[in-house]
Prior knowledge:
Blueprint: H1 6-15, E1 21-28, H2 48-60, E2 64-70, E3 86-87, E4 100-101, H3 104-124, E5 128-133, H4 138-143, H5 158-161, H6 163-176, E6 182-190, H7 198-210, E7 215-221
Parallel strand pairs: 1-2, 2-5, 3-4, 5-6, 6-7
Helix pairs in contact: 1-2, 2-3, 3-6
Amino acid sequence: EGYVTKDVITFYDQRSKDVGLVIVEATAVQKSGRIVPHGLGLWEDGQIEKMAHLVQTIKKNGACAVLQLNHSGPRCIPLENEPFGFSPSTVVSKPGIKPLTMTRDHIDQLILDFEKASIRAAEAGFDGVEIHGAHLYLLSQFLSPLTNHRKDEYGSDLRGRANLAIKIIKSVKQALGNDYPVFFRLNAVEKIEGGLILEDSLEIVKLIKKEGVDVLDISLIAGGGWK
Length: 227
């Protein structure tokens, strides 16, 4: 159910020694957004208490703790009796997962759920949050021309593709205040035909920096094996 377990505590206890910062792995803002069956979640208040224990474990070793918030989109695990596979368009990203193109209502709910998850992260004691916009998970798919073929305000051009990320950053900043650190993980380059190029990413950086992103965590997609 997305809860921190004893094994998670042990894992991060070992890895938070002799470092200054730990970014806790992709934590789903919706149940439909987990990457693996037992992935962490912060989509409900009941998950805060054990997350707080995780924060305390990291901080007792002298490191700062940041929580990475994510929705895996169509790279998710299937759910029974619930919608899954949210995507900007109908590009297949994982065998066996049929993409579900998001409606405006889906998008509005996702923005709210990122905001609520960030509030829970702050309540648990995290020193900041990282919004995962890389690796062709959901936000990354909105940013990339490879996977975003929408013709509405969340597509059409680079500014439109960045609109979801911008709205999530605004929502999180409004909820937590300008002094609360917000990281953003971004692909600098997607080495796939039709994917983001460096010039695109530099423009996206300018847009999200205006909204108050404090730290950029830069990654890339290395090739066609992303499916």
